[in-house]
Structure prediction request, 516 residues.
Amino acid sequence: MASPASGAEATTPVANRGAISFCVVLAVIMQALDTTIANVALPYIQGSVSASYDQVNWVLTSYIVAAAVMTPPSGYLANRFGRKRILMISITGFAIASILCGLAQSLYQIVGFRLLQGLFGAALVPISQSILLDIYTVEERGSAMAMFGISVMVGPVLGPVLGGWLTENASWRWVFYINVPIAVVALVGISVFVSETKKDMFARLDWLGFGALSVAIAALQMVLDRGEQLNWFSSGEIIIEAIVAASAFYVFLVHTFTAKGTFVNPALFLDRNFAVGMIFIFVVGITYLASLALLTPYLQTLMGYPVLTAGIVMGPRGLGTMMCMFFVGRLINKVDTRLLLLVGFLVTAWAMYLMEGWTPDVSEWEIAVTGFVQGAGLGFLFVPLTTVTFETLPARMRAEGTGLYNLSRNIGSSVGISIVMALLSENTQANHADISTYVTPFNPVFQNPEVMKLMSPFTEAGRAALDGAVTLQATIISYVDDFKLMTILSIVAIPLLLLLRKADRPQAMDHSVVME
Prediction:
């Protein structure tokens, strides 16, 4: 027998444990890579499918939203149909969706296939984690979860570098094709070494609550993704989508607070730490992945970095996170978690503040160091935030709580990406209009012969050069505004630390749930 039943504790060594661990960790790495590997390829995807800046970011947000929606019911699916079966279906579907992403010829095709990737990939991390917990004894679980945590963090570290190398030496399509050989190895190993769990024929899912929340999230994301393009509420489509989002959320709330056995247990939010932790992880989702979405066009479009160089200078961010996670893991039982969170938010705010001073002349070293600092801030937030969020929550509510916790993080990421890209587009237009008011033939600058030679307002070539210079300056200011917004968010969240409280009796907590 390869593994114990779901939820059972291994008391003796499990046969083929090394092979099982390798295969499930491989599945986790595959899913983790796709959260960042496509970032550096976005400008190439944009050109290939003829999309605008804000449109191409649907490639990121569609994946995140789909994964967010499908993560909470993954436990139900595993219980109802068998953990091994759902894991194999998830890997197979993820691989097929990856192939389709690589073959996509239009924006709508690649966004649709990324949705499929997210839907199938959502169950990979929680189910893989539960298998590892089952095949290791209680004494060995710390080491198992450390291995699991490293596999999850491989994505942010290797994703940008591997994505840059594949895009430069092959094609952007290979950032998706690379999943196929990984999936094949994981699938064969799991089919051979992992045994099926018992099916719970009486397992039930609150389909009304799940459906209403899914519709609300999807409609809200459509509003955020298409609002800037369609001039927000002057568009009938945006109005309809906003009404659908509000109505679905209303149905979800009414159902949650009036029915029994609902998709979300409202008693969870009576725990103050959990409620505050949900807000914190939402902010973390915004500041981390939204900043990554901004960096890609900044480095490759404004600064003209080759895709591989962009990936390399973005790599230290994940390295900073990994190093600080190990460091904080040693401090977690010795230092007040609220103090560690304070350090995390301050370091994150500092990194964003440093980005506010960037210009296209910023050095590669400064970008790498700033990224490392931001990653370090995230490392100080991950484990302490999980600990303080769940330490006062009753053990019976933790499984449901972790699903909502990761849902909040993913929604924060998708909402953050949509908002910063919409602001970037709108502010660039507004800044362009403001700066253009100073570009007149009577401006003293045009008395300089060298300026007149290159940017004469009296010639067509000069006006084109002037427009390019104005657009560049307007875009730089818009990036600064976005970085400033994330700095403010990181600082504004800090006072909420005062609402957190310590548990009367520390409870055993699996810190890795934050990485699901």
About this structure: Residues 1-7, 505-516 have pLDDT under 50 and may be disordered. The radius of gyration is 24 Å. The domain at 1-204 is CATH 1.20.1250.20 (Growth Hormone; Chain: A;).
